[in-house]
Write a structure and sequence with these properties.
By secondary structure, the protein is mainly α. Helices cover about 70% and strands about 5% of the residues. The C terminus is likely disordered.
Length: about 375
């Protein structure tokens, strides 16, 4: 966090020493993160793993782990490039684009793929149709992304014309693989992730077109960045937050009717910004076109959407008035289909700090893939 804000302040002040310091802090944080995860994976297993939703999920989890390892590698590569270019500005090549693609495609997209393959079957109760598309997706990224980074660093347009479409094929394959899972996702998570996938396809299409027509890339690069960063990444973060944060907080999402409004603000702002930027004339003619003020409306709407997301999540974590810490919530169990019989233990706080536990058999049954929704506003 300190590294990110230091880089931001250094860019605003055009102070490269601050940018270098922030980049070094960010890289140090990434190294500590990677070491922590490596220690976690190597620790002795002390408890049995939760049951798999379907037998084939074991193979899917192994593929997901490959993606997360690849993401960790590109996190270090991207931050290393950021630090190196801040200390020794390169005289040739598009190293800013090397950094951007290492971070967004290499780190974030690989991590998103790994997490999606790991959790979507568990979140939806649906089996994956096949692991073959996931394997092909991994190998396409494994081959295409290094070629793309090399092409951007050296300015070899012929190499970019090969790597760009290959990378686009990998991302389209990812969207096609997760698409059958999206309709079964709950609540606001479903439209958020569907919108994110749509923006990803548009961004991928633009990137592939840039590889074939560099002049188009020079004109629409900012549109490409907005669609990928705010449309794909922003909606993905929003959707995953709406699923996970209420479960972390131990209470339902606060103001759930505002969630679709927040998603519409982000998606609408991205679409408006991309449309205006795509039609705005270049150079001095841009001021005369009257679109300059309108071009700021899209990013402003996106910013307000993210502020609303922050408010919804903060209110979800805030403890309601009159509820003492440690009070046990009433649980409403939403069972998924196709799972064997199970039971659940619900603890209820008693007088003077005492506690009793009751066990109830559930029909329809629920297991580790079930969804527990808390009520009553208590933990």
């Amino acid at each position: 966090v300190a590294g990110a804000w230091t880089v931001y302040a250094g860019r605003l002040a055009a102070e490269m020493s601050a940018v270098a310091l922030g980049s070094a802090l960010s890289l140090a944080g990434a190294i500590v993160f990677t070491v922590n995860i490596a220690h976690l994976v190597r620790r002795r297993v002390t408890a049995p793993a939760p049951p798999l939703p379907f037998p084939e999920q074991a193979e899917v989890d192994r593929l997901a782990t490959r993606f997360t390892r690849l993401a960790g590698l590109y996190l270090l590569v991207g931050l290393g490039v950021g630090l190196g270019t801040s200390l020794w500005p390169p005289g040739s090549g598009r190293w800013d684009l090397v950094w951007a693609h290492a971070m967004l495609v290499g780190f974030f997209l690989s991590m998103a793929a790994g997490v999606s393959y790991h959790v979507f079957s568990r979140w939806t109760g649906r089996p994956w149709r096949s692991t073959a598309p996931m394997q092909l997706h991994f190998w396409l990224v494994f081959v295409a992304l290094p070629l793309m980074l090399l092409a951007l660093a050296t300015g070899r347009t012929a190499l970019l014309a090969v790597a760009g479409p290959l990378q686009a094929m990998a991302l389209v394959l990812f969207v096609a693989t997760i698409a059958p899972m999206l309709p079964a996702l709950p609540g606001a998570t479903r439209p958020a992730l569907a919108g994110a996938a749509g923006f990803l396809l548009i961004g991928v299409g633009l990137g592939a077109a840039f590889a074939l027509d560099p002049a188009l890339g020079a004109r629409l690069r900012l549109v490409h960045a907005q669609i990928n960063l705010f449309g794909w990444t922003g909606l993905l973060i929003s959707g995953v937050s709406y699923y996970l944060m209420p479960r972390f907080a131990g209470r339902p999402l606060r103001w759930p009717r505002l969630a679709p409004v927040q998603l519409a603000m982000v998606a609408g702002g991205v679409a408006l910004g991309a449309a205006v930027r795509s039609t705005m004339p270049q150079g001095p003619a841009a001021s005369a076109s009257g679109l300059t003020a309108l071009s700021a409306a899209g990013p402003a709407l996106v910013a307000l959407g993210f502020l609303l997301l922050a408010a919804i999540l903060a209110a979800t974590f805030a403890r309601p008035r009159g509820v003492a810490p440690g009070t046990t919530a009433t649980l409403r169990v939403v069972p998924p289909p196709r799972h064997p019989a199970a039971s659940i233990q619900v603890g209820k706080a008693g007088a003077a700090g005492s506690r009793r536990t009751v066990t109830r058999s559930l029909t329809p049954p629920v297991d580790g893939a079930g969804r527990l929704e808390t009520g009553g506003g208590a933990r």
